[in-house]
Amino acid sequence: MGIHGRSNGHTEGAMPRFKTILVTGGAGYIGSHCVVDLLQNGHEVVAIDNFANAVGDDDGSPALRKVEEITGKKVTFYRADLLDKPQINDIFDKHSVECVVHFAALKAVGESMAQPLLYYQNNVLGMLNLLEVMRSHGCFQLVFSSSCTVYGEPERLPITEEHPTGKITNVYGRTKYFIEEMLKDLSVADERWNIISLRYFNPVGAHPSGLIGEDPTKEFTNLMPFMAQVALGKKPVLTVFGNDYNTPDGTGVRDYIHVMDLASGHVAALNLLSANHVGLKVYNLGTGKGVSVKQLVDVFERVTGTRIPLQYEARRLGDITAMWADASLARTELGWTTTRSVEEMCTDFWRWQTMNPDGYVKKNKTSVIVNGKS
Question: Where is each NAD(P)-binding domain found (predicted)?
Answer without folding.
Answer: 22-348
